[in-house]
UniProtKB/TrEMBL annotation:
Biological source species: Serinibacter arcticus
PANTHER family linked: DNA REPAIR PROTEIN REV1
Every UmuC domain range: 6-181
GO molecular function: damaged DNA binding; deoxycytidyl transferase activity; DNA-directed DNA polymerase activity
Protein name per UniProt: DNA polymerase IV
Length: 347
């Protein structure tokens, strides 16, 4: 029996894809989803013009004058992320989310055809039920599965088989290794490491002193084929978070109280739909001054997902706090438990 195969599933240009689900007229046009004055996500046609996340609107429009700008649909994105996670769980017993739109899956098979069939089903259902393009990569470790999904983008399915796996552990350049940043790349270049095969000429102690023990160990494991292949599942949600901004693109500004009511409503709806209830809520306030975000928290004895209950408690938190001018606000419903396990208060 061979090594089990892992899947890396990643929704393509997620924010833009969600925003475009009901805008078929914009599918082939360059589109950027914008958070206030910054590009949060660019569609693939926009990326072809050099537009990318983190770019200011003015610069993006210089790159692509015909660029269509859309405000971030926070609520739709959160709902789509929840639905994606449910879809992942429907296809594998072990799912390790990496972000709202991606996850590693362990379907429990070492057979390539079986893994491909599962990946194809996942992509088909994402397209038909969620109207989202999903790329899936298949490999024997997390790194190889992630490299496979990168190779399959956009909207594809790619397999790194055993032969290609061995080739990559020789020819792969460090900049393509997930988690290796600019500082480590510079240090590896100083050691003469241009590919993974070059690690063989570097003494273990020297690599460890140059890159640190953890990174040196990881690079050696990748070279030797013993890198991380364990999907660490999240058995159930422990929190739901909703975020929003006071200012957006081509929409009226919102007050902190309006944002609060919207975000509390969203987390309560998502918890109730998932059959969960929370006993703590936190507010994350982002000051316009650029200072560190402030976190306010309160709790109750009995867990609930009732919107009215949490609206009252959250509003009290906000009204009691001296508020600076805010650019954003987040609400997290925490300490989730199955709603059917919540016992009503006796007194």
């Amino acid at each position: 029996m061979g090594r089990r195969l892992l899947l890396h599933a990643d929704a393509d240009a997620f924010f833009a894809s969600v925003a475009l689900r009901d805008r078929q007229d914009l599918r082939e046009r360059p589109v950027a989803v914008v958070a206030h004055v910054v590009v949060a996500c660019a569609s693939y046609p926009a990326r072809a013009h050099g537009v990318h996340a983190g770019m200011g609107i003015d610069e993006a429009l210089r790159h692509c004058p015909e660029l269509v700008l859309l405000d971030v649909p926070h609520g739709e994105i959160e709902e789509a992320g929840d639905a994606l996670l449910e879809l992942f769980h429907a296809h594998a017993p072990a799912v390790e989310p990496g972000s709202i739109e991606e996850a590693f899956l362990d379907p429990g098979t070492d057979d390539v055809e079986t893994a491909v069939a599962i990946a194809a089903s996942l992509r088909r259902r994402a397209a038909s039920e969620l109207r989202l393009p999903l790329t899936v990569g298949i490999g024997r470790t997390k790194l190889m599965a992630k490299l496979a999904s990168r190779a399959g983008k956009p909207d594809g399915l790619h397999v790194i088989d055993a032969v290609r796996d061995r080739e990559l552990r020789t020819s792969l350049t460090p900049d393509r290794v997930w988690g290796v940043g600019p500082r480590t790349l510079a240090r590896l270049a100083d050691l003469g490491v241009a590919t993974l095969a070059d690690l063989d000429a570097v003494p273990r102690e020297e690599l460890q002193q140059t890159c640190g023990a953890a990174m040196a160990r990881r690079l050696r494991q990748i070279r030797e084929g013993t890198d991380d292949a364990v999907v660490r599942p999240v058995t159930r949600r422990t929190s739901f978070t909703a975020t929003g901004a006071t200012s957006g693109y081509a929409r009226p500004d919102r007050t902190p109280l309006e944002l609060l009511e919207t975000c509390v409503g969203r987390v309560c709806h998502r918890a109730e739909r998932s059959g969960l209830a929370g006993s703590s809520i936190s507010l994350t306030l982002t000051p316009a001054s650029g200072e560190r975000a402030r976190v306010l928290r309160t709790s109750r004895v009995e867990a609930t997902a009732q919107n009215e209950d949490w609206q009252l408690l959250a509003r009290g938190l906000l009204e009691r706090a001296p508020l600076p001018r805010l650019t954003g606000l987040g609400v997290t419903l925490e300490r989730l438990v199955p709603a059917d396990q919540v016992q009503g208060a006796l007194f």
